[in-house]
Amino acid sequence: MIYSFNKQLSNTNIQYLSAEEDGKASSKPIMIMLHGFPENSWSWEHYIEAMSGHYSIFAPDLPGYNSSTGFKETQQYNIANLVETMAEFIRDIAGIQKVHLVAHDWGGVIAWPLVAFHESLFKKLTILNAAHPATFTREMANNPKQQANSDYITDLISETAYTKTSNNEHYMLKRLYGGWFKKLTQVQQSALVKQWDNQHAMEQSFAYYKNMPQLVTKRLSLNTEVKIPNIRIKVPTQVLWGMRDTAFVPEVLDGMEQWVEDLVVYRFDDADHWLHHQKLESVQQRLTDFHQ
Could you tell me the pTM of the whole model? Predict the structure, then answer.
C-alpha cells in the first residue's frame, strides 16, 4: 500500500509518497525518486509497490507540483534554490544514511547538481532521460536539432501557457506521451489530470522553465554568453536512456564521462522519453542490480 505524507521544510511544504506506514526511513536502504514534467510523485507508483520490500522508497512532488506547496516568487524556481530545497528534504528523510537517488526529466535536471554539490548525501545515482547540464548546454548552443526539440518550452513560458496546456482536455500534455498516456494506470492518469486541472500548480511547474539558463529554441534566443556548467559527479552513476526521446538529441550522451567519474550508460532502442513507464521490468532490474 502507498501512503501520502507532508514534510514542512524551511521554505516550503513537500508532499511525498512511501510504502512506509509512518513515512519514515526504516533499516532498509533509502531510495528517493524525483519525477519530471508534467508528472508528479505517482509516476513512481509501480516502483514503490514493487521495490519497497528491499528499499525505503520516498517519492516527493517537486516544489510547486501537485500537493507540494511551492514558493511565493517565480524567480525562486531557479536551480540553486531547487537543489537546496531537495537537499533539505533528503537530509530530513535520511538522517546520516546515504541515499540512492533516482531521477527522470526535471527531477534529473535537479539531481545532477544536487549530487555534485551535496555528494556526502548520496551513495549512487540513476538518471533516466535527463541530459547532463554540460552536454545539454553544449547541444542547446550548437545543435539546431536540439533547439528544435526544445521549442515546446517556448509555449510553456508564454503568458498563455495554461490555456494552451489545458485546451481540449489537456491535449498538448497528453500528446507529449506519444500515445502512452492511456497506458498509464488509472491512479496515475487521475493524479495527472487533477494536477493539470490546477492552474496554480501548473503555473508553478512552468516557472521551472522560466528560470532555465541559456535558453535557446527556434523561437526564443537569449543573448547571453554560453557557459558550460561545471557539474562533476563522483558517486557511481548509471544513465538509462530511451533512444527515441524527442526532447533530447542522442548527442547529449556524448562526452558525459568528462563530467561523471564512474559512469555506465544503458541505451534502450525501443523506448523514448517515458522509459520509466514503457520498460517497467527492465528499469526495475537495472535499479535493483545497480543500487546494491
Answer: 0.97
